[in-house]
Specification:
InterPro entries: PDDEXK-like_dom_sf, PDDEXK_AddAB-type. This is PD-(D/E)XK nuclease family protein. There is one protein chain. The protein is α+β, with helices and mostly antiparallel strands. It folds into 2 domains: 239 residues, Lambda Exonuclease, Chain A, CATH 3.90.320; 64 residues, no CATH class. It contains 13 helices and 5 strands. Strand 4 and strand 5 form a beta hairpin. Helix 2 packs across helix 3, helix 2 packs antiparallel against helix 8 and helix 12 crosses helix 13. The longest helix has 27 residues.
Length: 321
């Protein structure tokens, strides 16, 4: 993963408390997921603990980044495709715990890409963990919040059969979670890709954006969409307004991400600070089970726990009731 640039650190240190020093993909994404979650994380500066999936994501991203630096060096020196891709991975202790399915699937993904092209130079990414800044896209002048980001990998479009053109590049984000359902992609992985396309379009002709999910060995690709640009602009303008007048709170989007399991940490780190009641059936899973065994309907359980019917319905699914 890229180290924080001097500029990021400087902007953070110079920012007034409660203000937004710069825009990033994660900030836009978190605001769209739940404005109140964004508020606690970036306005109040409350950070949740690092989780196992977060550590896994960091380790896999660093492994892929080092792999690309090594294989690029090989192709530059040899001028040909390599036979063995494993040799370009970092030391085995860095990725052994993630060999199956993540690293094995990633290498299979690389093999498939290799088979689509004749020239090794168009198989390689044109950029790895590329950093870009966009200073003032919406005309705020001196008060503009700069937009920035790091793209995991940028590839020539010719190496992607899923893209209708061989011209330009495809910006790909690596995700170590499960592949999202189609209904969640436009406001999720594709919107994040659109954010990168906005950042990098002055440097490259962006043909499409994509996400690769090594857990399932899935590559999902989307052309650019103006509707996503409009949403990003709306969020950034909202950030500008927050810098002018700091909010006390923002809207809470009650949803499964508020509380998605009864295990430790299987909920939003800010759940107990906000007004969401979505997680009550899972937070009080023993009571939910007891009421179910007593014959309470879902509506009655929702009334007892002072939460939405949908939250109970979701808890029944998670608790296998």
């Amino acid at each position: 993963m890229p180290a924080q640039t001097d500029r990021v650190q400087r902007l953070r240190s110079e920012a007034e408390p409660g203000t937004i020093p710069y825009v990033s993909k994660s900030r836009v994404s978190k605001f769209i997921t739940c404005p109140e979650k964004f508020y606690f994380s970036y306005i109040k500066g409350l950070k949740g603990p690092e989780t196992g999936p977060m550590r896994r994501g960091t380790n896999i991203h660093e492994t892929i980044e080092e792999y690309y630096h090594n294989v690029t060096e090989y192709v530059t020196e040899e001028g040909d495709f390599p036979d063995d891709l494993v040799q370009f991975l970092p030391t085995v202790d860095r990725w052994a715990d993630y060999l199956t399915p993540y690293i094995a699937n990633f290498l299979a993904f690389e093999r498939r890409r290799m088979e689509t092209v004749d020239n090794p130079e168009v198989w390689l990414p044109v950029a790895i963990e590329a950093e870009e800044w966009l200073e003032d896209p919406y005309g705020y002048g001196e008060t503009a919040i700069p937009m920035m980001g790091y793209a995991d990998s940028i590839y020539p479009a010719v190496g992607f059969p899923d893209v209708d053109t061989d011209d330009g590049v495809v910006i790909v984000d690596f995700k170590t979670g499960k592949t999202p359902d189609k209904k969640y992609r436009n406001d999720g992985i594709y919107l994040e890709g659109e954010y990168y396309a906005l950042l990098f379009e002055s440097e490259w002709d962006v043909a499409a954006v994509a996400g690769y999910y090594p857990k399932n060995d899935d590559l999902i690709v989307s052309p650019l969409k103006e509707s996503r640009r409009t949403k990003i602009e709306s969020v950034v303008r909202g950030f500008q307004a927050m810098n002018e007048e700091a909010p006390d709170h923002l809207e809470t989007d009650e949803q499964p991400l508020c509380y998605y399991g009864e295990g430790d940490g299987e909920h939003c780190p800010y759940y107990n600070m906000c007004g969401s009641t979505w997680g009550e059936p899972l937070k009080h899973a023993d009571r939910t089970r007891a009421l179910h065994e007593l014959g309470y309907s879902k509506a009655e359980i929702a009334d007892d726990l002072n939460c939405d019917y949908g939250a109970v319905n979701y808890a029944f699914y998670k608790l296998d009731l």
